[in-house]
Structure formats: C-alpha cells, structure tokens
Amino acid sequence: NNKTTSIAMGAGANNATVTYSQTQNYSAATNADNIFNINRIAPTLRIAINGTQANLTGLSYPNATNVTLWVVSGDAIEQLTLFRNLTLITQGSTPIQDNILLAASIYNSTGFYNQTQNYSGATVTTTYIISRGTPAVNIYLNRSYAAANNTNLTYPNATITNTTVRRVWDTVNATLFRI
Fold first, then answer.
1. How many CA atoms lie within 13 A of 172 on its CB side?
2. What is the largest CA-CA distance in the chain?
3. Highest mean predicted confidence (pLDDT) among 6-15, 19-28, 43-52, 163-172
4. For residues 120 and 149, which has the higher predicted lDDT (pLDDT)?
5. Dihedral of alpha carbons 140, 146, 149, 152, sign
6. Picking from 48-62, 68-82, 152-166, which range would have the lowest pLDDT averaged per residue?
7. Shortest CA distance to 116 belongs to which of 72, 80, 69, 90?
8. What is the pLDDT of residue 166?
9. CA 87, CA 110: separation in Å to the nearest integer?
C-alpha cells in the first residue's frame, strides 16, 4: 500500500527517514539517512526613480526625487536597505522610499535584500542624472514687473527699484547694465 505525505520544507540540508512498523505480513523496516539539500532561490527586487524602473535622465533641479525599492518575490517582511552614492539612506520592510530634493549631479541608488532561510541575498542599482534648473529672471521697474523689452518710462520717474532672479527657493541679486 503506497502512502504519500507532503511536507513543506525550507532551504538547507534535510534528512528524511522513513520507518515502517511491523504488521502481520511484514517486519519493521527503516530507510534512514536520505540526505538532500534544498537550495535558496534568488528574490526579485525592483527599484524605481519617480515611478520609472530604468536609469533616468531628464530630471532637473529643483524637482524632488522619489526612489522606491520593493520586493516582487521573496520574503516581503525581510529588511531592505537603500543607499544613495554609498551612503545609507533608509532601512525597512518592503516598500521603502527616499523622497528628497537633490542638487544637480549624477546619483546612484542601490538596494540590498538580506539573505533569508529560503532566499539568497540580492542587489539592484539604478543611476539618475539631475541637471541644473533654469531660473526665471524677472526685472521690476518702479516696483512693477517689466514683462516685455522696450518698456517706456518717463524721466524723472524711471527708477529701478529692484532687480531679482527668482526661483522657487531662492532670490539672487542681479546686476543691471545701462546701454
């Protein structure tokens, strides 16, 4: 009489022993030391920059960057680690994120998945380029915005009261030249 029993086993070395108890027609028997190994499998790890799973260009300052690292297959509760340019940014369970305003430069973000009983360790890396932003330059004459060239003013009321370069987070003094 054949009997099959299924047992879920984790990765690693295993030893199966089968024992048959004595019956009226059969004596007791044992089949021991059936050693076998179950190998770990590689997890599937993903990393995205602003939702794109590829090396990314076209980002510009001062727009924030969102790096997301997550596990597609593997032990989702295991700890992930995220680095930016070899600096530890965050750790945690899937998904983890890095939302930050970065200066213009080239960056790489690397995610690590720690080895577990059933899954091997894994790494995923992406590179992204943040280019310099283009500031909005505005000239104010007599405290009014001069939207077009050749704005005509009448002497002696034509005075420049403020010249600025404006962007979301900064105001920079500019030099105005008379022609």
1. 11
2. 124
3. 43-52
4. 120
5. negative
6. 152-166
7. 80
8. 52
9. 10
Q: How many CA within 13 A on the CB side of residue 159?
A: 4
User: What tokens appear for 100 in the block?
Assistant: 């930050």
Average pLDDT over residues 160-166: 52
Q: Tell me how long the chain is.
A: 179
Phi then psi dihedrals of residue 151, to 5 deg: -70, 130
The C-alpha atoms of residue 154 and residue 71 are separated, in whole angstroms, by 68
**pLDDT value at position 77?**
72
124 contacts 54 by C-beta, under 8 angstroms: no
Q: DSSP character for 87?
A: E
Structural tokens at position 116? 């577990």
Q: Give the pairing type, strands 65-73 and 96-100.
A: antiparallel
CA dist 89 and 82 (Å) reads: 6
CB 80 within 8 A of CB 91: yes
- How confident is the model at residue 92, as a pLDDT? 92
Distance separating alpha carbons of residues 157 and 40, to the nearest angstrom: 81
| Measured distance CA(126)–CA(53) in Å, rounded | 8
Cα(121)–Cα(83) distance, rounded to whole angstroms? 16
